[in-house]
Amino acid sequence: MKNLTLLEKTENHISSLFLNADTSGLFYHNYNHTLSVVEGVSQAAEILNLSDYETEVLIVSAWFHDIGYLYTRTEHEAKSIEIMQNALRPNYIHLIEIATTCIAATKVGVIPENSLAALLKDVDVAFGSAYNFKKTNEAFREELIFSENKAFDNETWRKISTNFLQNIEFYSEYGKINFEDLVENNLAAYAELQLV
Prior knowledge:
Blueprint: H1 6-19, H2 31-47, H3 52-64, H4 76-88, H5 93-104, H6 115-129, H7 133-148, H8 154-166, H9 173-195
Helix pairs in contact: 1-3, 2-3, 2-6, 3-5, 3-6, 4-5, 5-6, 6-9, 8-9
């Protein structure tokens, strides 16, 4: 039997955690979102010709970045970091500090400390704002209703969603080049959609 790589082990571990958890309320922060972010950072790493080490850090961080949602909605990034740190000990201690920084950067309002953290944050945000915004926005709304009992009338949700799109900031050159125009297009389309 062949030895699994760290990335294979990580994928298996995260897949197993999702498979064995109650994910009924995770309409947005689910396995598909995680997989999208993993694929997004993998693509970015290839385009940017990142080193094997940088690519490994990014992909591992992407797999773990939202796993905390399986256990808590408050401070879920901290829970994700805790799960990642436990999973990487003792064989991959050298990745823990940098992966912690990357995952911590995905928290709303946190400014990334380095280029890898910026890239992960930008790809994560892009999958909520740049790609298929109408679908992801409604999925997030459903998640808030189901998991936090937070219901919003359509006008309030429109204001929240518009404000979200208007205040997005990308921190990496990759994010600015690849996602800013998509977010602007979504903002324009979303504003038009509300006028109908």
